[in-house]
Amino acid sequence: MTRPPVTIIGAGCAGLSLAAALPQHTTRPVIVHGQPSLAEKQPHIWGFWEMDWLSDAAMLSRASWPVWEFSAPGHPVIRHMTDTNPYHALVSSDWLSACRKKAQTTTFDNNNVAEQLLAPDKATDTVFDSRPPYLDEPFMKQHFLGWEVYSKTPIFEAGIARLMDFNTDQSRGIHFIYLLPFDAHTALVESTMFSLTTEPDSWYEDAIKAYLFTQFSLTDFTVERTEKGCIPMAFPARTHSSYPAIGSNSGAVRPSSGYAFTFIQKQVAALARQFSGTPNISDIHVPRPHRRRDLLMDAVFLDVLKHAPAQAPDLFITLAQALRGDELARFMSGIAGPAIIGKIIYAMPKWLFLRSAFRVCLDALIVRLKGAVS
Ligand SMILES: Cc1cc2nc3c(=O)[nH]c(=O)nc-3n(C[C@H](O)[C@H](O)[C@H](O)COP(=O)(O)OP(=O)(O)OC[C@H]3O[C@@H](n4cnc5c(N)ncnc54)[C@H](O)[C@@H]3O)c2cc1C
Fold first, then answer.
1. With 60 as the cut, is the pLDDT of residue 121 above it?
2. Does the beta carbon of 260 lie inside 6 Å of ligand 1?
3. d(Cα 41, Cα 39) in Å, to the nearest integer?
4. Considering only CA atoms, which residue is closest to atom 23 of ligand 1?
5. N or C terminus: fewer CB in 10 A for the chain?
6. Domains identified in the chain and CATH numbers
7. How far is it, in rounded angstroms, from Cα 366 to Cα 374?
Protein backbone atom coordinates (compact mmCIF):
# COMPACT_ATOMS: atom_id res chain seq x y z
CA MET A 1 0.00 0.00 0.00
CA THR A 2 1.42 3.42 -0.90
CA ARG A 3 1.77 5.67 2.07
CA PRO A 4 0.01 9.04 1.72
CA PRO A 5 2.41 11.97 1.58
CA VAL A 6 2.88 14.72 4.11
CA THR A 7 2.73 17.98 2.16
CA ILE A 8 4.42 21.13 3.41
CA ILE A 9 3.77 24.52 1.84
CA GLY A 10 6.71 26.91 2.15
CA ALA A 11 10.43 26.11 2.23
CA GLY A 12 11.36 28.54 4.99
CA CYS A 13 12.45 27.88 8.56
CA ALA A 14 9.33 26.00 9.67
CA GLY A 15 8.79 24.08 6.41
CA LEU A 16 12.35 22.79 6.10
CA SER A 17 12.74 22.16 9.84
CA LEU A 18 9.61 19.97 9.75
CA ALA A 19 10.83 18.15 6.63
CA ALA A 20 14.10 17.44 8.46
CA ALA A 21 12.38 16.19 11.61
CA LEU A 22 9.78 13.91 9.96
CA PRO A 23 12.07 11.10 8.69
CA GLN A 24 13.04 10.31 12.29
CA HIS A 25 9.41 9.39 12.98
CA THR A 26 7.73 8.27 9.77
CA THR A 27 8.48 6.64 6.44
CA ARG A 28 5.71 8.60 4.77
CA PRO A 29 7.01 10.56 1.79
CA VAL A 30 7.21 14.31 2.29
CA ILE A 31 6.67 16.95 -0.39
CA VAL A 32 7.84 20.52 0.19
CA HIS A 33 6.40 23.15 -2.15
CA GLY A 34 8.10 26.52 -2.43
CA GLN A 35 11.10 28.42 -3.67
CA PRO A 36 14.17 28.58 -1.41
CA SER A 37 13.49 31.32 1.13
CA LEU A 38 15.43 34.56 1.51
CA ALA A 39 16.96 33.11 4.69
CA GLU A 40 18.58 30.44 2.49
CA LYS A 41 19.63 32.72 -0.37
CA GLN A 42 20.78 35.75 1.66
CA PRO A 43 21.84 34.32 5.01
CA HIS A 44 21.16 36.16 8.23
CA ILE A 45 21.61 35.30 11.89
CA TRP A 46 19.02 33.48 13.98
CA GLY A 47 19.65 34.24 17.65
CA PHE A 48 18.35 31.96 20.40
CA TRP A 49 19.11 30.83 23.94
CA GLU A 50 20.27 27.24 24.20
CA MET A 51 17.48 24.94 25.36
CA ASP A 52 16.97 21.12 25.42
CA TRP A 53 15.17 21.16 22.08
CA LEU A 54 17.87 23.20 20.35
CA SER A 55 20.94 20.96 20.72
CA ASP A 56 21.34 20.44 16.94
CA ALA A 57 21.02 24.16 16.29
CA ALA A 58 23.46 24.94 19.12
CA MET A 59 26.02 22.54 17.63
CA LEU A 60 25.71 24.18 14.23
CA SER A 61 25.79 27.77 15.47
CA ARG A 62 28.52 30.15 14.40
CA ALA A 63 29.15 31.55 17.89
CA SER A 64 27.72 31.61 21.39
CA TRP A 65 27.96 33.89 24.41
CA PRO A 66 27.51 32.86 28.05
CA VAL A 67 27.56 36.58 28.94
CA TRP A 68 25.31 39.31 27.61
CA GLU A 69 24.43 42.89 28.49
CA PHE A 70 21.57 45.38 28.50
CA SER A 71 22.34 49.13 28.61
CA ALA A 72 20.36 52.35 28.69
CA PRO A 73 21.14 55.97 29.57
CA GLY A 74 20.97 56.65 33.30
CA HIS A 75 21.34 52.98 34.28
CA PRO A 76 24.34 50.83 35.15
CA VAL A 77 25.01 48.13 32.56
CA ILE A 78 23.10 44.94 33.41
CA ARG A 79 25.27 41.91 32.76
CA HIS A 80 23.94 38.34 32.76
CA MET A 81 26.02 35.18 32.90
CA THR A 82 24.89 31.61 32.45
CA ASP A 83 26.51 28.20 32.25
CA THR A 84 23.35 26.51 31.08
CA ASN A 85 21.65 28.71 28.47
CA PRO A 86 24.17 30.65 26.37
CA TYR A 87 22.94 32.90 23.58
CA HIS A 88 23.70 31.50 20.11
CA ALA A 89 24.00 32.97 16.63
CA LEU A 90 23.12 30.51 13.89
CA VAL A 91 23.62 31.35 10.23
CA SER A 92 20.21 30.78 8.62
CA SER A 93 21.58 29.10 5.47
CA ASP A 94 23.68 26.68 7.59
CA TRP A 95 20.52 25.53 9.33
CA LEU A 96 18.39 25.33 6.20
CA SER A 97 20.97 23.40 4.17
CA ALA A 98 21.42 20.97 7.10
CA CYS A 99 17.62 20.53 7.10
CA ARG A 100 17.64 19.74 3.37
CA LYS A 101 20.30 17.07 3.97
CA LYS A 102 18.32 15.49 6.81
CA ALA A 103 15.07 15.52 4.84
CA GLN A 104 15.82 12.19 3.15
CA THR A 105 12.24 11.20 2.31
CA THR A 106 11.40 14.59 0.84
CA THR A 107 10.66 15.66 -2.70
CA PHE A 108 11.35 19.34 -3.20
CA ASP A 109 9.06 21.12 -5.63
CA ASN A 110 10.87 24.45 -5.96
CA ASN A 111 7.75 26.23 -7.15
CA ASN A 112 5.39 28.29 -5.11
CA VAL A 113 1.85 26.98 -4.99
CA ALA A 114 -1.07 28.97 -6.28
CA GLU A 115 -3.76 29.57 -3.68
CA GLN A 116 -6.07 26.87 -5.07
CA LEU A 117 -3.49 24.52 -6.57
CA LEU A 118 -3.42 21.97 -3.82
CA ALA A 119 -6.51 19.85 -3.56
CA PRO A 120 -5.42 17.09 -1.23
CA ASP A 121 -7.63 14.19 -0.35
CA LYS A 122 -8.66 15.33 3.13
CA ALA A 123 -9.12 11.73 4.26
CA THR A 124 -5.58 10.58 3.61
CA ASP A 125 -3.30 13.52 2.90
CA THR A 126 -1.74 15.73 5.50
CA VAL A 127 -0.90 19.31 4.56
CA PHE A 128 0.89 21.89 6.70
CA ASP A 129 0.98 25.49 5.56
CA SER A 130 3.93 27.70 6.54
CA ARG A 131 3.15 30.67 4.34
CA PRO A 132 3.25 33.92 6.34
CA PRO A 133 -0.03 34.85 8.05
CA TYR A 134 -2.14 37.90 7.26
CA LEU A 135 -1.78 40.87 9.57
CA ASP A 136 -4.05 43.86 9.85
CA GLU A 137 -2.22 47.20 9.58
CA PRO A 138 -1.30 49.19 11.53
CA PHE A 139 0.76 46.88 13.71
CA MET A 140 3.98 47.27 15.66
CA LYS A 141 7.06 46.05 13.82
CA GLN A 142 10.58 45.17 14.79
CA HIS A 143 12.60 46.55 11.90
CA PHE A 144 16.32 46.53 11.62
CA LEU A 145 19.39 46.77 9.49
CA GLY A 146 22.64 45.15 10.56
CA TRP A 147 26.19 45.31 9.29
CA GLU A 148 28.78 42.66 9.90
CA VAL A 149 31.77 44.94 10.31
CA TYR A 150 35.47 44.17 10.25
CA SER A 151 37.93 46.42 12.07
CA LYS A 152 41.68 46.07 11.54
CA THR A 153 42.29 47.06 15.14
CA PRO A 154 40.92 44.61 17.74
CA ILE A 155 38.16 46.54 19.50
CA PHE A 156 35.26 44.19 20.27
CA GLU A 157 34.95 42.30 23.55
CA ALA A 158 34.49 38.86 22.03
CA GLY A 159 32.89 37.07 25.01
CA ILE A 160 30.04 39.54 25.61
CA ALA A 161 26.94 40.03 23.45
CA ARG A 162 25.15 43.36 23.72
CA LEU A 163 21.51 42.36 23.35
CA MET A 164 20.01 45.81 23.79
CA ASP A 165 21.90 49.07 24.06
CA PHE A 166 19.56 52.07 24.17
CA ASN A 167 22.46 54.57 24.14
CA THR A 168 21.41 55.63 20.68
CA ASP A 169 18.99 58.02 18.94
CA GLN A 170 15.46 57.63 20.39
CA SER A 171 13.91 60.44 18.32
CA ARG A 172 12.03 58.15 15.86
CA GLY A 173 10.79 55.54 18.31
CA ILE A 174 12.07 52.69 20.48
CA HIS A 175 15.58 52.15 19.18
CA PHE A 176 18.53 50.07 20.32
CA ILE A 177 21.74 48.55 19.05
CA TYR A 178 22.21 44.76 19.05
CA LEU A 179 25.86 43.81 18.84
CA LEU A 180 27.21 40.28 18.49
CA PRO A 181 31.03 40.21 18.55
CA PHE A 182 32.32 37.12 16.70
CA ASP A 183 35.91 37.97 17.60
CA ALA A 184 37.90 41.08 18.53
CA HIS A 185 37.80 42.30 14.91
CA THR A 186 34.37 41.23 13.67
CA ALA A 187 30.86 41.96 14.93
CA LEU A 188 27.28 42.05 13.74
CA VAL A 189 26.02 45.52 14.66
CA GLU A 190 22.31 46.01 14.17
CA SER A 191 20.21 49.14 14.51
CA THR A 192 16.79 47.90 15.63
CA MET A 193 13.53 49.76 16.09
CA PHE A 194 10.10 48.90 17.47
CA SER A 195 7.56 51.16 15.79
CA LEU A 196 4.66 51.23 13.34
CA THR A 197 6.65 52.44 10.34
CA THR A 198 10.05 51.54 8.92
CA GLU A 199 12.88 53.97 8.16
CA PRO A 200 15.06 54.35 5.04
CA ASP A 201 18.23 52.22 5.07
CA SER A 202 20.40 55.31 5.53
CA TRP A 203 18.76 55.96 8.90
CA TYR A 204 19.86 52.62 10.41
CA GLU A 205 23.26 52.93 8.71
CA ASP A 206 23.84 56.35 10.25
CA ALA A 207 22.85 54.94 13.65
CA ILE A 208 25.39 52.10 13.32
CA LYS A 209 28.15 54.51 12.26
CA ALA A 210 27.36 56.85 15.15
CA TYR A 211 27.35 53.95 17.62
CA LEU A 212 30.67 52.55 16.42
CA PHE A 213 32.16 56.02 16.71
CA THR A 214 30.82 56.90 20.16
CA GLN A 215 31.37 53.45 21.71
CA PHE A 216 34.62 52.35 20.05
CA SER A 217 35.98 55.51 18.31
CA LEU A 218 35.76 53.35 15.20
CA THR A 219 35.53 55.02 11.79
CA ASP A 220 37.84 52.78 9.79
CA PHE A 221 35.99 49.52 9.16
CA THR A 222 34.66 47.46 6.27
CA VAL A 223 31.13 46.14 5.91
CA GLU A 224 31.40 42.42 5.18
CA ARG A 225 27.69 41.66 5.02
CA THR A 226 24.34 43.38 5.50
CA GLU A 227 21.15 41.91 6.88
CA LYS A 228 17.81 43.58 7.25
CA GLY A 229 14.37 42.55 8.29
CA CYS A 230 10.94 43.58 9.45
CA ILE A 231 9.31 41.21 11.90
CA PRO A 232 5.72 41.68 13.07
CA MET A 233 5.25 42.33 16.79
CA ALA A 234 1.58 41.52 16.57
CA PHE A 235 -0.99 38.79 16.73
CA PRO A 236 -1.72 37.35 13.26
CA ALA A 237 -5.23 38.28 12.13
CA ARG A 238 -5.77 35.24 9.92
CA THR A 239 -3.71 32.21 9.00
CA HIS A 240 -2.78 31.64 5.36
CA SER A 241 -5.39 29.15 4.03
CA SER A 242 -7.37 26.64 6.05
CA TYR A 243 -4.68 23.95 6.19
CA PRO A 244 -3.11 23.44 9.60
CA ALA A 245 -0.64 26.28 10.06
CA ILE A 246 2.96 25.88 11.23
CA GLY A 247 5.69 28.41 12.02
CA SER A 248 4.92 32.08 11.78
CA ASN A 249 1.61 31.19 10.08
CA SER A 250 0.57 29.61 13.39
CA GLY A 251 1.68 32.68 15.34
CA ALA A 252 5.17 31.38 16.23
CA VAL A 253 6.77 34.83 16.09
CA ARG A 254 6.59 35.92 19.73
CA PRO A 255 4.68 39.22 19.58
CA SER A 256 6.65 40.97 22.33
CA SER A 257 10.13 40.09 21.07
CA GLY A 258 10.09 38.99 17.42
CA TYR A 259 11.93 35.78 18.37
CA ALA A 260 10.60 32.79 16.45
CA PHE A 261 13.36 30.26 15.78
CA THR A 262 13.18 28.58 19.20
CA PHE A 263 9.37 28.33 19.09
CA ILE A 264 9.36 26.95 15.55
CA GLN A 265 11.90 24.24 16.46
CA LYS A 266 9.93 23.21 19.53
CA GLN A 267 6.70 23.13 17.55
CA VAL A 268 7.94 21.11 14.57
CA ALA A 269 9.79 18.60 16.79
CA ALA A 270 6.60 17.95 18.77
CA LEU A 271 4.55 17.75 15.58
CA ALA A 272 6.96 15.28 13.93
CA ARG A 273 6.91 13.06 17.05
CA GLN A 274 3.16 12.58 16.58
CA PHE A 275 3.88 10.69 13.35
CA SER A 276 5.62 7.85 15.23
CA GLY A 277 3.80 4.54 14.81
CA THR A 278 0.74 4.65 12.59
CA PRO A 279 -1.39 7.44 13.97
CA ASN A 280 -4.78 8.43 12.64
CA ILE A 281 -4.45 11.63 10.70
CA SER A 282 -7.25 13.13 12.75
CA ASP A 283 -5.12 12.61 15.89
CA ILE A 284 -2.30 14.81 14.59
CA HIS A 285 -2.48 18.37 15.85
CA VAL A 286 -0.06 21.24 15.45
CA PRO A 287 1.07 22.28 18.95
CA ARG A 288 0.44 25.91 19.87
CA PRO A 289 3.75 27.77 19.72
CA HIS A 290 3.08 29.83 22.86
CA ARG A 291 1.27 29.37 26.15
CA ARG A 292 -1.87 31.46 26.61
CA ARG A 293 -0.44 33.23 29.66
CA ASP A 294 2.67 34.26 27.68
CA LEU A 295 0.47 35.71 24.94
CA LEU A 296 -1.58 37.59 27.52
CA MET A 297 1.61 39.05 29.01
CA ASP A 298 2.77 39.95 25.49
CA ALA A 299 -0.50 41.72 24.71
CA VAL A 300 -0.19 43.82 27.87
CA PHE A 301 3.50 44.55 27.24
CA LEU A 302 2.84 45.61 23.63
CA ASP A 303 0.07 47.91 24.82
CA VAL A 304 2.50 49.49 27.30
CA LEU A 305 5.09 49.99 24.53
CA LYS A 306 2.42 51.51 22.28
CA HIS A 307 1.19 53.99 24.90
CA ALA A 308 4.47 54.76 26.68
CA PRO A 309 7.28 54.21 24.13
CA ALA A 310 9.57 56.66 25.91
CA GLN A 311 9.64 54.34 28.91
CA ALA A 312 10.81 51.33 26.88
CA PRO A 313 14.53 51.58 27.74
CA ASP A 314 13.73 51.74 31.48
CA LEU A 315 11.31 48.82 31.19
CA PHE A 316 13.77 46.54 29.39
CA ILE A 317 16.48 47.41 31.91
CA THR A 318 14.07 46.74 34.80
CA LEU A 319 13.18 43.38 33.26
CA ALA A 320 16.84 42.42 32.83
CA GLN A 321 17.65 43.63 36.37
CA ALA A 322 14.90 41.48 37.87
CA LEU A 323 16.18 38.21 36.41
CA ARG A 324 19.31 36.06 36.36
CA GLY A 325 20.71 35.05 32.97
CA ASP A 326 19.16 31.58 32.96
CA GLU A 327 15.82 33.06 34.06
CA LEU A 328 15.81 35.59 31.23
CA ALA A 329 16.72 32.80 28.79
CA ARG A 330 13.78 30.70 30.00
CA PHE A 331 11.39 33.63 29.87
CA MET A 332 12.44 34.57 26.33
CA SER A 333 12.13 30.92 25.27
CA GLY A 334 8.58 30.55 26.62
CA ILE A 335 9.26 28.21 29.55
CA ALA A 336 9.29 30.61 32.49
CA GLY A 337 7.65 29.12 35.56
CA PRO A 338 5.50 31.02 38.11
CA ALA A 339 8.56 32.19 40.10
CA ILE A 340 10.08 33.95 37.07
CA ILE A 341 6.73 35.40 35.99
CA GLY A 342 6.19 36.59 39.57
CA LYS A 343 9.57 38.33 39.61
CA ILE A 344 8.74 40.16 36.38
CA ILE A 345 5.29 41.27 37.53
CA TYR A 346 6.73 42.44 40.85
CA ALA A 347 9.47 44.48 39.12
CA MET A 348 7.30 46.27 36.56
CA PRO A 349 5.60 49.62 37.26
CA LYS A 350 2.15 48.60 38.46
CA TRP A 351 -0.02 51.50 37.32
CA LEU A 352 1.30 51.46 33.74
CA PHE A 353 0.74 47.74 33.39
CA LEU A 354 -2.64 47.71 35.14
CA ARG A 355 -3.92 50.38 32.73
CA SER A 356 -2.71 48.30 29.78
CA ALA A 357 -4.13 45.08 31.21
CA PHE A 358 -7.49 46.84 31.56
CA ARG A 359 -7.33 48.08 27.93
CA VAL A 360 -6.36 44.61 26.64
CA CYS A 361 -9.26 42.98 28.51
CA LEU A 362 -11.68 45.65 27.28
CA ASP A 363 -10.52 45.21 23.67
CA ALA A 364 -10.94 41.44 23.94
CA LEU A 365 -14.44 41.91 25.33
CA ILE A 366 -15.40 44.30 22.51
CA VAL A 367 -14.12 41.82 19.89
CA ARG A 368 -16.16 39.05 21.52
CA LEU A 369 -19.32 41.17 21.66
CA LYS A 370 -18.92 42.21 18.03
CA GLY A 371 -18.50 38.52 17.08
CA ALA A 372 -21.66 37.62 19.00
CA VAL A 373 -23.67 40.39 17.32
CA SER A 374 -22.53 39.71 13.73
C1 LIG B 1 16.45 39.13 8.88
C2 LIG B 1 15.71 38.36 9.93
C3 LIG B 1 16.33 38.09 11.14
C4 LIG B 1 15.67 37.34 12.11
N5 LIG B 1 16.32 37.08 13.27
C6 LIG B 1 15.74 36.28 14.17
C7 LIG B 1 16.45 35.90 15.34
O8 LIG B 1 17.58 36.35 15.58
N9 LIG B 1 15.85 35.03 16.20
C10 LIG B 1 14.61 34.53 15.97
O11 LIG B 1 14.12 33.73 16.77
N12 LIG B 1 13.89 34.93 14.91
C13 LIG B 1 14.44 35.78 14.00
N14 LIG B 1 13.73 36.13 12.88
C15 LIG B 1 12.29 35.76 12.79
C16 LIG B 1 11.97 34.32 12.36
O17 LIG B 1 12.90 33.40 12.80
C18 LIG B 1 11.71 34.19 10.94
O19 LIG B 1 10.73 35.06 10.50
C20 LIG B 1 11.39 32.75 10.50
O21 LIG B 1 12.06 32.61 9.31
C22 LIG B 1 9.92 32.37 10.29
O23 LIG B 1 9.89 31.09 9.68
P24 LIG B 1 8.61 30.55 8.90
O25 LIG B 1 9.02 29.30 8.22
O26 LIG B 1 7.45 30.51 9.78
O27 LIG B 1 8.30 31.66 7.82
P28 LIG B 1 9.20 32.02 6.55
O29 LIG B 1 10.64 31.79 6.82
O30 LIG B 1 8.74 33.38 6.14
O31 LIG B 1 8.76 30.95 5.47
C32 LIG B 1 7.56 31.04 4.77
C33 LIG B 1 7.88 30.51 3.40
O34 LIG B 1 6.66 30.45 2.65
C35 LIG B 1 7.02 30.73 1.33
N36 LIG B 1 5.84 31.00 0.52
C37 LIG B 1 5.09 32.13 0.45
N38 LIG B 1 4.10 31.96 -0.46
C39 LIG B 1 4.23 30.71 -0.96
C40 LIG B 1 3.52 29.95 -1.91
N41 LIG B 1 2.46 30.45 -2.56
N42 LIG B 1 3.92 28.68 -2.18
C43 LIG B 1 4.98 28.13 -1.53
N44 LIG B 1 5.70 28.82 -0.63
C45 LIG B 1 5.33 30.08 -0.35
C46 LIG B 1 7.97 31.90 1.45
O47 LIG B 1 8.72 32.07 0.26
C48 LIG B 1 8.82 31.44 2.62
O49 LIG B 1 9.94 30.70 2.19
C50 LIG B 1 14.36 36.87 11.89
C51 LIG B 1 13.73 37.16 10.67
C52 LIG B 1 14.39 37.89 9.71
C53 LIG B 1 13.68 38.18 8.41
1. no
2. yes
3. 6
4. 13
5. N
6. 6-135+234-283 (3.50.50.60), 141-232 (3.30.70), 292-373 (no CATH)
7. 12
